[in-house]
Amino acid sequence: MEIYRICLAKYAGELVASGNPGRWNLRGQLVVYAAGSRALACLENVVHRSGEGLNSHFRVIRIDVPDALATEELTLAQMPPEWQLPRHYARCQPLGAAWYQRQTAAVLRVPSSIIAHEYNYVLNTRHLDFGQIRIAGWEDFAFDPRIKEE
Fold this sequence. Notes:
alpha+beta, 2 helices, three-stranded antiparallel sheet
C-alpha cells in the first residue's frame, strides 16, 4: 500500500515524529500521520496550517507500507459523537492512544474528518514493525495559490 505525507522539504528525508498531540495521539506518543491520497494529504495540510506558510518549499513523501504488515482500523461505528469537529480531539485521542499502547500494529487506519469515505493513516514509530515501512520516494509539491485566497 502506498500512502502520502506532505511536509516541508527539509523534513522529507525521513519519517520523524514530533511527539506533539494530534487527533489520534497524546503528547509524547511518537506517531507520523499520512493520508490515503495526495489530494487528502494536501487538504489536511491546508486545514491544519490555516493557510499560513503554504508558500514554503514542500514535498510529497510516498510511503510504502508492506501489504503483509498488520494494520488496525477505527471505523465510523467506533467514533464518538461529533468526533470530526476540531474541538473534539479529546474524544478521539483515547482511541488512538489505546492502539499506540497495545503495540499490536504499526499502522492505524482512521476515517478522514475532512472527506467522507477517505482514510488517514497513523504510523507508530515505536512499533517493532515500523522499520518495514519505507519512503518509496518524494516529489516537490506546491500548493495552488487559489486554495487559501484572501
